[in-house]
Amino acid sequence: MILAAGRGERMRPLTDRVPKSLIEVAGRPLIAHLIERLVRAGITDLVVNVSHLADMIERELGAGSRYGVRIAYSREEPVLETGGGIAYALPLLGLEPFAVINSDIYSDFDFARLVSVSATLDTATARAHLVLVDNPPHHPTGDFSLSEGKVSAHGPRRLTFSGIGVYAPALFASVPRGTRCQLAALLRPAMALGNVSGEHHTGLWMDIGTPQRLARLEQLLESGSGG
Predict the structure, then answer these.
(1) Does residue 13 sit within a domain?
(2) Which residues pair with 49 in a beta bridge?
(3) Distance (Å, rounded) from C-alpha 217 to C-alpha 208?
(4) How many structural domains does the chain have?
């Protein structure tokens, strides 16, 4: 699942007329860069959640054939936050563990890893697997701690959640379909039970949340350093 429903407030006024996932960098929309990396990893069945300027995203991506993927859309009105949006899309995602990735990140993370990780979540206790990264300057305090492959809400060394994760459908069982819910509100209780694993990605990762970071990514790709 690719998360593309957000308003992109920090990118305004650009996102008043273009959804953030369709903002171009190196001549292609952000979401196109992500889809191409997923295809390289062998991931071709996608669900994209949309809300703000949803018609533009659906027209641009269509059914996905241009990219070699199959896309189903989950429309949210209003936006249901990350946890609520995933819960709302469960009928499209199926009964097996699935990956969820933010559309506004750029990373050289090997998404093929998510395929193998999903098999480890098919148990009664495993609920999620998160990819964490070093804390960027705009988020110096991080989100979660990682120790011996387990993610916790508290700990001495905090890392930033990358927006890349694998989830068991059972994680969202308590969320009534169509209600707003933050993903962290579901993850923290699962962490307390030891049901969230994780890994530390030390390669390229950028959260394209502001025009300044978009410009940095543009420079990076122009220099050929984007992986």
Answers:
(1) yes
(2) 3, 74
(3) 8
(4) 1
Whole-Å CA distances, 148 to 69, 82, 145, 199: 35, 27, 10, 9
Domain contains 183: yes
pTM (predicted TM-score): 0.94
Q: Please check whether residue 110 lies inside any domain of the structure.
A: yes
Quote the pLDDT of residue 226: 67
Tokens matching residue 33 = 């860069």
**Residue 120: is its pLDDT beyond 90?**
no
Please report whether residue 55 resides in a domain. yes
pLDDT digits (tens, 9 = 90+) for 24-38: 988 899 999 999 999
Quickly state the pLDDT bin for 125 (edges 50, 70, 90). confident
Q: How many CA atoms lie within 13 A of 37 on its CB side?
A: 20
Q: pLDDT category, 209, cuts 50, 70, 90?
A: confident
Question: DSSP state, 97?
Answer: -
Give the range of the structural domain holding residue 9, as residue numbers without chain letter.
Answer: 2-222
What proportion of the chain, given as a percentage, has pLDDT over 90? 77
